[in-house]
Amino acid sequence: MTVLRAALLSFVASVSIASAAECPRKDALGTSRVMTVDPQAFPRVGLKSFPHTLPLADKEVVLTFDDGPFPATTTKVLAALADECVLATFFLIGRNAEANPAIVKRIAAAGHSIGHHTWSHQPLDKIGQQRALEEIDRGIAADEKALHGVATSVPSTPFFRFPGFASTPALLSSLQSRGIAVFGADLWASDWNPMTPEQQLNLIIERLDYEGNGIILFHDTKAQTAKMLPAFLQYLRRKGYKVVHLVGPRPIKSSSNDR
Question: Are strands 15-16 and 214-219 parallel, antiparallel or unpaired?
């Protein structure tokens, strides 16, 4: 058995089908299942950056949001997700989490997963190994402080995404040695480019229908995304797509040295 096959079997074994919490809207999209992502099995996922991605079935999608929290738009994204009883993963920027701890707690209280996206969104491949590691650790610590009240560089959910997907082999190795899964994406809405919500909706629908499934990247800091999201979730429901929610393995206990 190859190492890859063994890793895949181990990863698939960690996938648990979970009954979503009772949704007040019987016609809502809902969250079809919960997948536990073991970083040791799949340390790097997302075909835009890496050779492998999550083993999703046809018409299964994972919703992820970067760069928040940002009060004006993150709250609207949360409302749209709640209306359809859908769970997502939010990759937070540390300084935004530090400035908006109440929203961080709100994201977690709604059942969403919290990943990490550095302290200040610098391109980590351009600033040197030591500064990059400090950006990663400071971001994780700020997110954890906002979430749990204790600053630690050991993430309770070991998910990380590089700003601009700008990784280096050394940083990837460092994160893998710490048991932190690195997320790329399989497709995105290009919402860093100005466009109308309607244009963005048409673009992500075209890309998703072509790919058939995958990890989708959005930014909850973008007003056009917040406005587009309800229509996109309704499209997923009409066309029979299923939303898969990602969680990490049991939380890693931090030590006093990590605080």
Answer: unpaired
Pairing of strands 159-160, 15-16: unpaired
Distance from C-alpha of 103 to C-alpha of 52, rounded to nearest angstrom? 32
Instruction: Give the separation between CA 170 and CA 131, rounded to whole angstroms.
Output: 13
Mean pLDDT, all residues of the chain: 91
In degrees, to the nearest 5, what angle opens at C-alpha 107 toward C-alphas 161 and 115? 15
H or E stretch including 45?
Answer: strand 44-45
Residue 251: the pLDDT is 59
CATH number 3.20.20.370 is the correct assignment for the domain at 31-249: yes
Model pLDDT for residues 166-186, shown as the tens digit of each residue: 999 999 999 999 999 999 999
Using CA atoms, how far residue 85 sits from 38, 78, 81, 177, in Å, is 25, 10, 6, 35
Which residues are marked as active site? Answer: 66, 219
On the question of a cis peptide bond just before residue 69, with omega within 30 degrees of 0, the verdict is yes
Tell me the C-alpha distance between 82 and 229, whole Å: 11
Per-residue pLDDT tens for 140-155? Answer: 999 999 999 999 999 9
Taking residues 23-34, report their average pLDDT.
92
How many Å apart are CA 184 and CA 258, to the nearest integer?
Answer: 26
